[in-house]
Amino acid sequence: MSSGAGLFLNCPDPKIRGAIIFHEQGPQLYDYSIRLNHTWAFSGFPDIKTIMDVNGPYTNDLELGVNIVPTLQYGFSGFLTLQQVVDSFIIFAAQQNETDIDDGNSNLTRMHFSPSNIRIAPFPTRAYTDDEFQLIIKKVMGVLYILGFLYPISRLISYSVFEKEQKIKEGLYMMGLKDEIFYLSWFITYSIQFALSSGIITAVTMGNLFSYSDKSLVFVYFFLFGLSAIMLSFIITTFFSRAKTAVAVGTLSFLAGFLPYYTVNDPAVPMMLKVIASLLSPTAFALGTVNFADYERAHVGVRWSNMWRASSGVNFLVCLMMMLVDTLLYCGIGLYLDKVLPRENGVSYPWNFVFKFCFWEKKSTSEHDSGNLEVKHSDVFSANEFMYNVNGSLSEPAVEAISLDMKQQELDGRCIQIRNLSKVYINKKQKCCAVNSLWLTLYENQILALLGHNGAGKSTTISMLVGLLPPSSGDALVFGKNIRSDMDEIRKGLGVCPQHDILFPELTVKEHLELFAILKGVEEDCVEKSVSEMLDEVGLTDKVNTVVRALSGGMKRKLSLGIALIGNSKVIILDEPTSGMDPYSMRSTWQLIKKIKKGRIVLLTTHSMDEADVLGDRIAIMGNGSLRCCGSSLFLKHQYGVGYTLTLVKSAPGASVATDIVYRHVPLATRLTDVGTEISFRLPLASSSSFESMFCEIESCTRRTITDTETGGSHGESGVGIQSYGISVTTLEEVFLRVAGCEFDETEYVSHNKALVLAESMVSEASHHTQNKASSPKALLIKRAVSARRDRRTIVFQLFVPAVFLFLGLLLVRLKPHPDQQSVTFTTSEFNPLLQGDGGGGPITFNLSRPVAELVAQHVQGGWIQKVEPRSYRFPHPRRALADAIEVAGPELGPSLISMSEYLMTSFNESYESRYGAIIMDDQNDDGSLGYTVLHNCSCQHAAPTYINLMNSAILRLATRNENMTIQTRNHPLPMTSSQHSQRRDLDAFSAAIIVTIAFSFIPASFAVSIVKEREVKAKHQQLLSGVSVLSYWTSTYTWDLASFLCPSFFAIILFYIFGLEQFVGSGCLLPTLLIFLEFGLAIASSTYCLTFFFSEHSSAQNVVLLVHFFTGLILMMVSFVMGIIESTKTANSILKNFFRLSPGFCFADGLASLALRRQGMKLGSGDGILDWNVTGASICYLGVEVQCSSP
């Protein structure tokens, strides 16, 4: 055979129909294989079954009714003819070797037994309806179900990351919420939602898709996937801190979990690979749809009693178990990643914390830290002596001496002790020290006002105290508990009013206060009373049932203050609590803060010097991350006071009397300003003794000026005096400016303002004369480019993530195995495996009415003979049935077939074992040849050749009188031909078209985000007010979005070349593919802009636009694909496609799918041309029209 193969390969046009290979040639075993060519077969799309299809189970009890494909495969290919010829020759040759013949059987042995006439017919079946829909939808059901879950998954990801982005999660933690309670609340909430969804899906589909399956199992199937999807989404959210990015990339990542399905859905793929792929729950979920389709088509349904039985190489029980395992696995991975991944807020754990973290270790660490703090406490004043001022020179911060009561609080631990606390931010370029060795103590019954310029370290200090940020070094004790190790305990008594309101937009004022009262441990009976009292205190009684989104900014601050104060927290941290309030609300808030300070430690930050002066028992000023001073307002004014400020109003601009009086009494006075009739001086504190005489002279001058004005007299220039005057002591603002290193020269400030006004007027005038409307689009494009450069992560996700998703999908499709089919040995040992251990045998129904049948039946091996007996049952319309049988099989065989069929129909419950074949033998011919008919069960695709092999082996043993002789026949298809490889590649290209459509559905969703967000924050309105025309705005947006669309399109074309997808980039296909991509980009951008007008929030717009493009693109294409295959819906599909093509997404998906399946004869009514109307012509034309109609 090897030499023949070599000669065959050297042929100029090598073609082979088939081959027969003998493995054993006697004397007792004749073993041979019949190898035929794949293309020599009956085949059809989408089932690429051929005569050589030996993959899948040997028997399939789910096969319903008569399956003519195996009959056609084995019959039309010539396989059965070759089998008969070879078996006849083996029997003839074996008889020639028999020389010793028994005299008693001379008449029988003179004949040469030979199976000359063999017929096959299918088993009779009950009336049934073949569910063609389930057979076809089986190919695409997985992706459709996954897309159905896409919107709730995207919302889950969006809401979860939104809480992180808005610091709601950390705000709840600050109020004492436990990690496990937070996660459990999310899990329970979405578990209920998915339970309701699963129930609705089960109720809706119980009469159509899942008519025969157990409804409770259907519910469990969808619910388990919902649970695993929750946990998979939890893992995804740990990597993101921005909801916009998380929705785009997270949803795409969720879909990526479905891609391995395209690699492992083939029945030939080993179960172990399916299990490994099922570690991604979308893949496990999609594999389960295969079982549903098989069992529903068989009118059996998936039930608790049969879910462990595999079909199409998939075990439904394994799918369920893997989704449960995935849920637990994702939960553990998500909790771990949430602890160790770096984040903007909160403390990250080391990667190995699970191996060393335990309660006793935590406790000992706390005690150790407390001991260290006590050692440092003795050095507090010495440490304060070594502080640096802004210029870098040594400076001693001014700290007011504390009272005995404060010292006692330090000893009792009734204070907050901050010791050597530092926070350093490190990036690639430099290190930034936000807080530098801060030493500070906050006392009970006092309000400490913490002041500092922007970036001084106030918010960073607060973030470390409440556990939002981990300290780089140092620590702090809050009522004796260390912020490094006891933050959970500290937060139980912590009330925080953050700088930015951390509120739930959907909850009312009352619901907020009730929630945080419960979190802070208020007893259930007292919650209502506490909420009512707090509503009165903060002045929100009339807004008790108003949702937060309807509140003004000042009211939200009042609610945040109420949340901080409710629950009798011992430590209150207020970060700019009165920002956004009107003067009346501000004063009432001051009174409330003063009222609640008793028994509490209150830390207040503010930029209002009046607020700090009124509320602060002690005031601390920070500068560049360090403490500059700390003490009462009076102490700071005395410490850093610069004197008094005297302001006089002259009767005339040029009068010099005021200056002369001031310098005569206070020679060291400094003139600050002299503008118009107003002049001001700074007077040293030491000159206060001269004020009395100076004021007397000023008063006399003032009275004389008034008298002269009333009498209308004039004393000349020298008589011009002073109209009024005033004096003020150093303000806290001046102290702050001086201490914080931000003191300014008022004269320079005035001069600078004048110069600035002049410059602005010049610029305005110049721009008025040089403004060019044509420059607006350019400026807007520059704006988008700068925004993209600043938000690199979003741009990378928008441009490259779809390409990466496409690469992974195409890679997995490429890795899908297409091996040559293996050899199958025809044997009855594959029958009844559940009842026979490893399988084997079963009843062989045999018509023994003829003598030769009795002889042959005695030599049959591989089962037991079930004798046909007469039955009273008759087919409906027996005369017509008999006439049909006689017309087909002849007058002798026809009645026998009817009799056998009636017996099979009435005896199928008489044995626990399934029957896969029945035999009717003819009378022996005069030349000794035999004829028989095999009735085969269509649930075994190899039943006909198996029973032919069984009968011919029995005839061999009868002819040779040797029970050890047998014939073993194998079906071993030849390697796949180029046409079959082409068919496989076209199917892979169709999968690639689906993956491309999924990837490119995310790009228009990113277009919507920027547009809606600009409208949401009023940026678009501002641009239009600034002179940007509507045409310029939309033109620049359209241009930028089209350019951003071209990048992933370019990557997609490159990937088509890399993976050898000639269906898209082969000869004559590249131009249509490029046109489809380009026109889709132009059309989809415009249609997305139209959708954006329905949204006011960019996160909602992103989710809904994504869902709309999925539905109008991929889902419509899949619906049209299925309808185009089903014969009864082809006409309706042709009509509906004219409406479907109004969607750019459908044209894109259908165009690519048509290119992939062009060679499979799917597009009826058109030729093989690539640009034919039903291939790509319609998609290209419709997209072109849509571009013209929807362009901005």
Task: Summarize the structure in words.
- The protein is α/β, with parallel strands linked by helices and 1192 residues long.
- The protein folds into five domains: 65-95 and 111-124 and 828-965, no CATH class; 132-348, no CATH class; 401-631, P-loop containing nucleotide triphosphate hydrolases (Rossmann fold, 3-Layer(aba) Sandwich), CATH 3.40.50.300; 642-707 and 720-729, Alpha-Beta Plaits, CATH 3.30.70; 779-789 and 979-1190.
- It has a seven-stranded mixed sheet, sandwiched between helices. The chain has a five-stranded mixed sheet with strand order 3-25-24-22-23, with helices on both faces. It has a four-stranded mixed sheet with strand order 1-2-26-21, with helices on one face.
- The protein is elongated, with a radius of gyration of 45 Å.
- The model is unreliable at 1-5, 40-51, 99-110, 362-394, 713-719 and 743-773 (pLDDT under 50).
Low-confidence parts: 1-5, 40-51, 99-110, 362-394, 713-719, 743-773
Total domain modules: 5
CATH architecture of the largest domain: 3-Layer(aba) Sandwich
Average pLDDT across residues? 79
Largest sheet composition: 7 strands, mixed
Broad CATH class of the largest domain: Alpha Beta
Family: Belongs to the ABC transporter superfamily. ABCA family. CPR flippase (TC 3.A.1.211) subfamily.
InterPro entries: AAA+_ATPase, ABC2_TM, ABC_transporter-like_ATP-bd, ABC_transporter-like_CS, ABCA, P-loop_NTPase
Keywords: ATP-binding, Membrane, Nucleotide-binding, Repeat, Transmembrane, Transmembrane helix, Transport
Membrane topology: Multi-pass membrane protein
